Amino acid sequence: MVWGAISYHGRSNSIRIEGNLNSNRYVREVLQPEVVPFLQGIPGAIFQQDNARPHVARTVRDFCSAQRMQLLPWPAYSPDMSPIEHVWDMVGRRLARDPRPAVSKDELWLRIQAIWNSLPQADIQHLFDSMPRRIAALIAAHGGCTKY
Question: Which residue intervals define the domain Tc1-like transposase DDE in the entry (predicted)?
């Protein structure tokens, strides 16, 4: 698994996560070393994560609360409107353009890191800028219903 975070003006390091990610590993390997410093550089930051089990565990909620991290509430069964999912799609498409198969997980990881680091920040900003339009289209498609 690969993890990364984005903001309008930057991105975190990408992190390679081997094996199963539980809430303790998520705090120890992602939140503490990457998310907290990343958010400290962004005044008024709101951290968005999906409802994956490690993200919603009490351990993680307690850690985020202790760090005074502002979290975006994410309703269960909501459509995924997260800009990061679009970024991972960009990474995947660029990875698929390379005709050479990766000969190892390490080589694949190096390619993913190179793509992550080379994505134009303007492309990420465009995703953020497009969110109001995407949300309006989603609401319109569901007859004005905002509950999922």
Answer: 2-100
Amino acid 19 reads G
- Gap between the Cα atoms of 39 and 118, Å rounded: 21
Q: What is the pTM of this model?
A: 0.85
The amino acid occupying position 49 is Q
What does each of the 148 residues of the chain score in pLDDT, given as a tens digit?
Answer: 999 999 999 999 999 999 999 999 999 999 999 999 999 989 999 999 888 899 999 999 999 999 999 998 877 666 667 889 899 999 999 999 999 999 999 999 999 999 999 999 999 999 999 988 887 887 787 766 655 4
Within 13 Å, how many C-alpha atoms sit on residue 39's CB side? 18
Helix (H) or strand (E) holding 69, with range, is none
Going by C-alpha positions, the residue among 41, 8, 9 that lies closest to residue 129 is: 8
